[in-house]
Design a protein that fits this description.
With 77 residues, the protein is mainly beta. 0% of the residues lie in helices and 30% in strands. The chain has no helices and 8 strands. A 4-stranded mixed sheet has the order 2-5-7-8, with no helix packed on it. Strands 1-4 form a two-stranded parallel ribbon. A hairpin with a 2-residue loop joins strand 7 and strand 8. The radius of gyration is 15 Å and the shape is elongated. The chain starts with 22 loop residues before the first strand and ends with a strand.
Amino acid sequence: MHGFDDPTIPIRDQALTRIAPVRIRRGAWLGQNVVVMPGVEIGAGAVIGANSVVTSDVPPRTIAVGAPARVIRELPQ
């Protein structure tokens, strides 16, 4: 995520403010145009709906959609 504190510098040229790994576990499926924020883990077998913005961890075997993404259903084991 780019910083935006200095209005005299274009945002793209400002330092990154948050760098953290993203973990997408085995069998997870992400729809088209999904954005996953730094530090988020998507659980095994989870489904993320198209155009969702994932800002927090998604548990395994769940469906998450929206901006920000929220869990709407658990999948059968």
